[in-house]
Amino acid sequence: MLLDTRGHDGIKYRRVLLKLSGEVLGNRASGDCIDPDALASMATRVKRIVEMGVQIGIVLGGGNIFRGIKGETKGVSRTTGDNMGMLATIINGLAMQNSLEHLGLETRLQTAIEMNQVAEPFIQRKAMRHLAKGRVVIFAGGTGNPYFSTDSAAALRASEIGAEVLLKATKVDGIYTADPNLDPNAKRYATVTYEDALRKRLQVMDSAAFALCMDNRIPIVVFDFYDKDALERIVRGETIGTLVGDEV
Q: What is the pLDDT of residue 1?
């Protein structure tokens, strides 16, 4: 029997790190790399859990604007492409910050690449203070180093801020044995250990991110971003998507 770790108010996770891919910001139909409606929808969902008393940090990908690995196939060096991708996450971070502030939330944008005119440099102690004051902290610029994905940046920031869980939003409702869009026989895992995620090379997050969460014992919940109630249900401790952890 699983132990119920929720507090008296029904909240299980008090501090979370939300990882969003850049693609969820765009609109393929219109060709917009940043869609105001998609931003507003995300911001509204974040606001709901902030109002529940949850402290939240956000890491955004940059794939809607530029992806370093893809650039390498077209003649852009990996280091240059990754630097371009990290700058793309800062653009997305500014867009998310603007959307959240339109809803009345206090925010801070911190970047791994110093850009003092538009954001604070990432300083762990300052990030912790912002979270304690109820501000949403957006972490942009990846890790500040090429060859590391924004998944790795999310795992790193989750570790640094003491997040109780890393929430990975995807276009499917969890981790599958194969790509469910290509294999109709693919099965969804309800739970999976870090070791199995690494051994089976499950592709939802890269191995460096899985390993970092394993070392710091941060559970990962992989869920369907398009489920508009998922964030609230997860922070209450409901079973949503796939849980990755030590012993699950």
A: 38
Q: Scan for tokens 């801020």, then name that residue.
A: 161
Cα–Cα dist 220/38, whole Å:
24
Structural domain of residue 169, as residue ranges? 15-245
Write out pLDDT tens, residues 90-115.
999 999 999 999 999 999 999 999 99
Of the candidates 109, 95, 99, the one whose C-alpha atom is nearest the C-alpha of residue 139 is: 109
| Structural domain contains residue 99 | yes
pLDDT at 5: 58
Cα–Cα distance list, 179 to 42, 184, 187, 188 (Å):
25, 9, 9, 10
Nearest residue to 145 (alpha-carbon basis) of 207, 83, 85: 83
pLDDT of residue 75: 84
CATH number at residue 175: 3.40.1160.10
Note whether residue 6 is domain-resident.
Answer: no
